[in-house]
Amino acid sequence: MPIVLHIKDIRKVWHIERTKEQVVALDGISLDVERGEFLVLVGPSGCGKSTLLQIIAGLENPASGGIELSKSLDGHKETGMVFQEYALFPWRTVLENIVFGPEVRSVPKVEREANAQRLIELVRLRGFEHRYPHELSGGMRQRVALARALANDPAVLCFDEPLASLDAQTRKVLQVELVRIWQETKRTFIYVTHALDEAVLLGDRVVLFTARPGRIKEIVPVRLPRPRTITGKQEVELLEYLSERIRDEVERSLKAEGLT
Amino acid sequence: MWRRYRPLRIISPIAFLLIWEAVVRLGEVNPLLVPAPASVLRTMFDMTIDGRLPWAIAVSLHRVLQGFIYGSVLGIGLGLLVGWFRPFEDAVDPLVGAIYPIPKSALFPLFILWFGLGETSKVITIMIGVVFLVLINTVTGVKAIDPVLLKAARDLGANRRQTFMKVVIPGALPNIFTGLRLGAGMALILVFITEIEATKAGLGFLLWESYQLLLVKQVFGCTIAFGILGILTTWILQWLEKVLCPWRRV
To answer: Which listed residue, A24, A87, B11, B187, has the most CB atoms within 10 A of its CB?
Structure first.
């Protein structure tokens, strides 16, 4: 598989103005992401996995190091972000939210709306096109956010704990939906979560982060057939392995915060 | 709004008026100072027929509308710039901080000296009163926009101008309406104050003249007319907000 994203020796430092402290959020992150892969980033909270995602999406700049993204064929923006808080524009209907990206890129109205209709079909929101975000459930909002990110036709989709605000039932449904949409669109998904079961269910590879400063502790390939179930024997084994590996890091990060 | 029928909401004001009427008729208060509601209504009716009340309202409304519209446009425009562009904030903030605490009615004498006794000084006083309330609420609205929305806009490819037009303006709209509602109330206060002196027309003038002639029923009538104006402006602004912000759950 060709490499779609080349991450090279990224370092990120936060400067805390009040205390003049410098916090190293990420250090020495190098990673190659294959085109079409479902990559999951997991680690204890505060390990910088979300920061790395923001750097990939171009919303944050690294202190040193860099990323190389192979251009998508038609030169569109190469990444699209799905946020935990949905980040839908409350004053725009479902359809208007989805066309936002093409709209600011001046894609003709007919074309962008036809494309949006196709995406509405893909994320199964037919019948809700003219609802406002507050008239939708959390799960539906995240479907809109996904369609909105896809509307820009990015090569890489970045997910920042997209299911963390949802109830357990909705999460299960959307985990299945995400895999389906990933398979149908053949995009590269980079998915940040702290839920290990999600890593097992979704990922082609799971990148484990250390506690702050965030470094890559281990990259675990997941060679399990899909569809996966969280109660399957191999899945359970992998889940146990991941939680074993991450336990030290969680304890370290708790210690760093003075909580143990 | 009307889904739940709450009878007390209707009974309470009617009971209040009935008790008032009864108290006056029983001779408990001096009707020259506190006239009965029915007689006030009668007076208002007469003032409407002879044209004095409608004319006074029209004159005042004209002043209020001019001051309100100029003040709103200036307040929204300036507020968006101050909220979104740091240099504007640095330039305008100290001025707002210095002028805002002054009661706007206290500026009226100066405006009479500068702009004369005519309409201009009144309209400018009203405008100044409106501008600050709209400005401050617009700035609040811009600053209250969820940063993740700005991030999302940037992620989707919006440049700074597009973010301003498509995120900042609609995002600030609900707070802008709060400013407009407060501004409308301020405009009514100020139109009354500017009509006490140096004018021969307007609802405030009619009220003040009635007071000086001890026509208490007319004073009540004008006061009620002011109240009705207040309610009407609130309704119109609420309607406008519903049309312009259909996504808001009210």
So the answer is: B187
